[in-house]
Every structure is written in structure tokens, then in C-alpha cells.
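Lab notebook, bench 4. Still working through the backlog of constructs that have no structural model yet. Next entry is a single chain of 150 residues. Request: give me the C-alpha cells for it.
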Amino acid sequence: MLRGQRDAMTRLLEAKLWVESTAYAARLLADDQVPWLDVAGVVGWQRKAQGLLRSDVVTLPVAPVCAAWLAAHPALAKAMAAKSRVGFALKTLLADAANRALALARDELLDRAERVMDPTLRESFLANVPEHARILALSNSWLDRGRQSL
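Model written out:
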């Protein structure tokens, strides 16, 4: 065997195995019903697939996750389809994710603030901690007008 052929064979044998198994594993292990929106469910499903196939590379396909998300949030799907402008659907999807994250941060902050019994200390907690004040300012301005500006 020539040295170049031997080197090529060595590289081939050392190559990583990437098995795109999403459809196969979905059919075999989840009856074509992968729980894309359930983190524990997807992790369990991926572990089973990985145990069976032993791929060196594991990926999470974005398309079925997005499809499941949009099926669970039809108002978002409708908003994304409202205009045919290039990039509008993606901008709408990302704005929705940002709105959800900001609303969650605001809700968690207000829940913590409710546990402060003294009204003066509560106000100070919300207004004088820079990160808290930023969250409230953003949520007051962005969440109220966010849906209208898309």
C-alpha cells in the first residue's frame, strides 16, 4: 500500500460517525411523536437513540422543534404569516421569544419583590438595583408596544 493510500485509510478509520437518525429514531422509539416541547422527554428520547445508534455526533434538528412550537402557539404562527416581507416571520418569532424572556424576568422579579414586606424597601429593591430597574423599564415600554410594532 502506498503511503498516501495508507494515510487516507487511516483518516477514514479515524473519522467520526454522524448518523442523521431523527426520522428513524422518531418512528422506532417515539411512534413518530417526539415530545419536542418537553425537555426531559426529548433528552430521554435522544438518550435511547444514542444508546441504540452510538453516533459520534448528536444534533438537535431545529425544524421539528419550530413546527411543534408553532403548532402549540397558533397566534404566533398567524402573526408570522401576516406579511410576506423577507425576514418578517423570523423577526416576529425572535421578538416573541424576547418578549417571553422579558415577561418571565419581570414576573420573577415582581414575585421576589412581593416577599419584601416593607413598602419602602420593596420600592428600593425594584428601583435602586440597576438590573431590576432595567427589567421594569424594558418590560413597561417593550411588552406594551411589542405586539403593535411588528
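Notes after review: The CA atoms of residues 96 and 145 lie 12 Å apart. The two ends are 64 Å apart (CA to CA). Flag for follow-up if needed.
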